Each structure stands twice: as C-alpha cells, then as structure tokens.
Amino acid sequence: MCGITGAVWQSESLRVDRSLLKQMTDAIAHRGPDDDRVWIDNDQRDGQGRHYGVALGFRRLSIIDVEGAPQPMSNEDGGVRMVFNGEIYNFKALRQRLEGSGHQFATHGDGESVLHLYEDIGTDCFAELNGMFAIAIWDTRRSRLVLARDRIGQKPLYYALVGDRLVFGSELKSLAAVPGVCNEIDPAAIDEFLTYQYVPHPGTIWKGVRKLPPGHLAIFEKGKLVVQPYWDFDPTVEVPRSKGEAVERLRELLTDSVRLRLQSDVPLGSFLSGGIDSSLITALAQRQQAETPIRTFSIGFPIADFDETGYAAQVAEHLGTNHQRFEVQPNGLDIIDKLVWHYDEPFGDSSAVPTWYLSELTRREVTVALSGDGGDELFAGYDRYRALWLSVRLRRMFPIHKMPGIGLIQRLPDNNKQYSITRRAKRFLEALDQPEARRYLNWLQIFPERMRAELYTDEFVERLPGEDPFEFLDAIWNRSEGRDVVTRASITDMLSYLPCDLCTKVDIASMAHSLEVRQPMLDHRVVEFAASLPVQLKFRGRRGKLLLQDAFGSMIPKSIFTRKKMGFGIPIAAWFRNELKPMVHDTLLADDARIAPYFRREVVERLVGQHERMENNHGYRLWNLLILEKWLRQWAG
C-alpha cells in the first residue's frame, strides 16, 4: 500500500523538477512511511522528435517483499516505468504465466507482474488484475502515460490536465502542491456535496481537477487525454440459479477472496463490528489461519444506541479470536480538522470519525486489516431497499394522497434517536409519489432539493450550472434497466455510494495511519456474481442478506443475523447540542463564516436553532455544513 504522484509535460516552463516532485510526494508521506523515491527524465522524445518530460514519485508502505520491490520500477530495458498503489492478489499466478513466456523478475513483489503484463498486452492488462490499485505507467516506446484505477474504486486517483502538463496523484494534496492546479472551487461540487455528502466522480471540489472513475483507464498521448472503461460489467444481466447453486458458488468465491487477501509479510488482523459482514469475513479468515487466533478490533461509544462492541465480543468469543475493543469519547471530535485535511475535499460521512479511530488504534497492533465493506450493497442489506420495495407495493394499491394516516404522520414532531421511526416515516412518505430513481435519491440525500433552494444565496444560484446533481445517480440507475427495483438500487449503490463514499472513507482514514485495509467482499468476482443473482435469493420482504445466511450461517452465532442493524454511526444529534455546540457558533454562525457567500445566514441559523431546541433533528445536515465550513477555512484560503 502506497502513495503515487507525478506529471508529464511538453513545455520546459511546465517542468516538474526534483524539488516540486519532492513536495508532491511529501504531501502523501502518511500513505507510505517506509520508502520515498522519485524518477525524472526531462529529455524524452516521441517518434516525431517532440520533447517530453516525465516525473514519477512514490511513497511506500511495505507489505509484500518488504526489503525489495522499490518504485518507481522499470522493465528489463527501461522502456516502461511504473508507480503503483494497492495490492494485486493474483500476482503469483500472473508471475508464473509471465515467467513462462520469458520475462525476468527482479523482485518478489506484486507490482512487477503488472509491469511485465503491460509489456505483453498493453492496456488490456488491467482486466487481468484481481486487486485494488491505482497505477501510472510511462511507456517510453509510445511516449504515453497510462493511468488506471481498480474496478470498485478502492484506491483513489486524481488528475488534472492544465495546458500541456498532466499531473496526477493518490490524493488531491499532491496536485495542490503544483502551482496553477487547485485554484478555483467548482460551485456544482458544493451542490453535489450537500446532496450526497461527497463529490461524485469524475468531478472534484476544484474546477479542472478530476477523479479517474472506477474501472477506467486514461491515456495521455500526443498532448491528448482519453478516458475509457476497461471493465465490461453489464448490470442488466441476471443469471438464473437455484439456491443450492448460488450457495456453493458464493462459498467458493468468498473463501478464495479471503484466502488471497491473507497474503502478507507483515502482521494482519480484522475489523470486527459485530455485524454480519465483518463477522463472516473474520470467520473465514480464522478458518484459514486455524493454528493462530486472528487479531480482531472493534470500536464503540459510551452511548448504547451507537455501540456494537458487545456483539463484536460475542463473535470474537465464538470464533476464538484475539480481540481488542476501543471506545470513542466525545472529546474525540478534536480530530475534525485532521479529517478535513486528510480528505482533501468536503466529505460528510460522519462515520469517518469511528473509522479514523479504529484505523489509528488498529495500526498500533497490525499493518493490514480485513474489513466487511460491501455486504449491504451486494446482498441487499440496507433498510432503504426494504423501503423501496414497500413503496412499489403501496403505489400499486392506492394513490399516495389517499393513504391512511398520512396527514397525522407528517404533522408528528421529529424524534432525535438514531433510527427514529417518525423521521424515517416522514422521509418515506415525502418520496412516495416520485419516480423510482428520484424516490431513492430522496432517501439518500442530506439536503433535499427544496432545502437547498431555501439555503442558497441568489449569487450562488447564479453561479451554478444547469446540471442537476440527480443526473449522477440517474445515469447509474439506468444502467440496470430491466431489473427489479431492489436490484437496481443495490447496483446503483455498488457503482456510486460504494466507491464515492465507503471506499473513500476507508482508504483515507486507514492510509492516514499507514494501515492497509483489504475488503474481500469487493473482489470483482464476488461483485459480479452478486449483481447477477435473482433478487429472491438475496431479499424477500423485510429481510435481506438471505444468501449470506444460507451460505455461512453456521459459522457465526445465529443472533448476529437476526439482531437489529445499527450501522457505523456516531451520536451526532446529541453532540451538536452539547460538545459541538460552541464550534458551530464559532464557525457556521460567526461573522467571518466562509460559507456566507453560498448560504443564507438566516436559514443556517434556523437549522441550528431547530436542532438545539430539539424541534427537529438536523444533525447530519449540520455535520455537512460544519465540514464544508472547516474545509473552506483550511483549503480555500
């Protein structure tokens, strides 16, 4: 696990010298504390004699071949050079194949297989990889730079083409070190952020700076940049399977995925929340490391509604793991400024707080941790899938305005508990009369469209482009045309929420502490298999994740499958009425608030007041506003 950065330029005035490249790599030193190397060649020439300069920078966290495998690395004749972040889990099989075709390996690391595979088959090599990765390859023979990102988006990769220079990096802060790149905030990104709590790919908070979408590659050649997909995943395809066939195939795939992700030359453990997904991954890992108890780690809160660690302890005892529990106290909010710095652009998922602390404390014991991320998206585990399924049934029965009790529910005061029945009922009813994709967005979004319209200043509205943030989700929703509504929602999450939110959250929080997190559920074979399943194998009525229980139910306590889902949240509503209250008044409501050009002060004051008086629960909205305010203060001058 590492951090990569670099640039290609045609004009000498845009040259990235050693000093600037060192600033770019130093900005991501936390991603790789074990090694720091750069390579620069300012005298590259293409077939027509045009000048090119190339710079590649690398920070390494040693996981495989700890003493060897330095980067940037090159092939035998130096014609191809590469920097690579991530892990290629099938590298041993690739190496055997490549050695058989005559390649000579200089290291025992996983990255060198990518380099030689590219020599043989060019950009088709990425479809052969099983792993999480962000890769940059300089091909001297063709005078081109190739960038690639893994299928699910577990590893980030940013780039910007400014004039005749392309710069790239694992994090935005590497690009921000280059003058003239991160200069102007994109107003559309703020609108998207308040909708989704993240800025969706391919955009970023900065105009002209892009995220390479998951499953895509980019080729910079002859001054032109072409971005294209290499993953041919078709979400419209459903494969009929019996339950027995599906159970057998899932056991085979997930067991092999865990096996591959146990490869490590450094200490390895597992996150264990006490939920279904992390419990199953831990159980599979423990079964394959039967001789030694695997190290497991959980994190909780002093507020019972947000603490799952009792369930984690129950699973750990059942499996016989070596378990440790950590607890986040309210004073843990001191890390907000650190979160804002590490996430680079506004990122409003409040579960980044426990993820941060879990990563920090786990790193004291191990260098690699397994995680259960992806189970809800792949196997229909979220409550919102049930809500969507129910909404379809209700709409078939009678019009929304004739629904019994609708007026009473809409007039009830909001409840401030994490999973308030009243609040969820209100959101459910608000969206019931909308088309399916719009209905789904209504349950996902932080600030509904009507609230954003009230919030925005006239000047900010004038700066917004004509695009609706909904278009991002709608385009993905339409990719699974013809499937049932639950499958469409889960596939949409696989291709949007999973890479943009969950993978970003885990990557940044873990790499801030030089911890590598591996997610066996996100093996592309498992993802493709889950997406192809008939919905009745995963979901029926009020229950999801049926196939997981059918395949692995005997491995963990039955109560883990039947207990109420809690999620990985924080007591944010209470914190905004207590520990966070002074910070809100000193930032969001301050005379020098940086959000002032964007948002109406009286609307922000109303949200804060309603929340503090317990008239409504705006906890997540206030968190997103606070994160944006903090980001503007730290990154926008």
Can you give keywords for this protein?
alpha+beta, 6-stranded antiparallel sheet, 41% helix, globular
Architecture overview:
With 637 residues, the chain is an alpha+beta fold. Helix content is 41%, strand content 16%. It is built from 27 helices and 17 strands. The strands form 3 sheets. A 6-stranded antiparallel beta sheet has the order 2-3-1-9-8-10. A 6-stranded antiparallel beta sheet has the order 4-5-6-7-11-12, covered by helices on one side. Strands 15-14-13-16-17 form a 5-stranded parallel beta sheet, sandwiched between helices. Strand 2 and strand 3 form a beta hairpin. Helix 6 packs antiparallel against helix 21 and helix 9 packs across helix 27. It is globular and about 70 Å long.
Q: How are the elements arranged and paired?
A:
Elements: E1 2-9, H1 18-26, E2 35-45, E3 51-60, E4 73-74, E5 80-88, H2 91-100, H3 111-121, E6 131-139, E7 144-149, E8 158-162, E9 165-169, H4 172-176, H5 187-196, E10 209-211, E11 216-221, E12 224-229, H6 243-261, E13 268-271, H7 276-288, E14 295-300, H8 309-319, E15 322-327, H9 336-343, H10 352-363, E16 368-370, H11 375-378, H12 383-397, H13 406-411, H14 421-431, H15 436-444, H16 449-455, H17 458-463, H18 470-477, H19 485-495, H20 497-511, E17 516-518, H21 524-532, H22 546-552, H23 558-562, H24 572-577, H25 581-587, H26 601-612, H27 619-635
Parallel strand pairs: 13-14, 13-16, 14-15, 16-17
Antiparallel strand pairs: 1-3, 1-9, 2-3, 4-5, 5-6, 6-7, 7-11, 8-9, 8-10, 11-12
